[in-house]
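Researcher: Structure for this, please.
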Amino acid sequence: MKAARLLTVWELSGALHLHPQTIYLWKREAKLPFVEIEGRVRFDAEEVERFIKARKSQPPPLPPPPQVDFPLSEYDRFYLKGGRRALSKDSRRWNYSIGSISVRKTKKGHDRWYLDYRSKEGERRREVARYARTRAEAVAALQSRVSQEFNREFGIENPAQFAGALLFEEFADRYLHDYAEKTKRSADTDKYRLRSIREAFGAFKLSDITKTMILEFR
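Model: Predicted structure, token format:
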């Protein structure tokens, strides 16, 4: 008898293009068949295929929340303003070097996250992070918006192609000279922090720098 191929939460989230938290939510709501092996959740690949086929005739789901691929504690350590006070349980707003996020309760008691950043023209923009459910997802949404403004300002139509063509050292120079020194008060801090990073990755193309390399550097 052929053994069932079991998928992890992360493998399934990649296959369905959904955030892992959505997978856990669907598990709790019994939308997905699953098994628990030594306390770990696994999904039968054949059952998942049947689930996907059944969904094709249904309306598409809401877009997933922003993907979080960074440790929030590390991001806070480098970019959050206000120190420990900003991380207190009563905090409702977090100011970062690239912009701010804030949270309010809806009438139904849910958290609604807001972004506050500058456009390429320097105009203040405030908007709802529609699919963010956590502070980490709100920060990811803020990063995405600021990245879009950066690309728009410098005419980068295809960020992936742009990244593949540049060495990290070249990108760091462009970031400092064309962006940080013109728009950020923390430009000197950015320049200092980039020294050791430049030494480690300067000769690599951005597209060649992997998560493993970054973890080893850290």
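Researcher: Any notable elements?
Model: Strands lie at 6-7, 35-37, 40-44, 93-96, 99-105, 111-118, 124-128. The first helix runs from residue 9 to 16.
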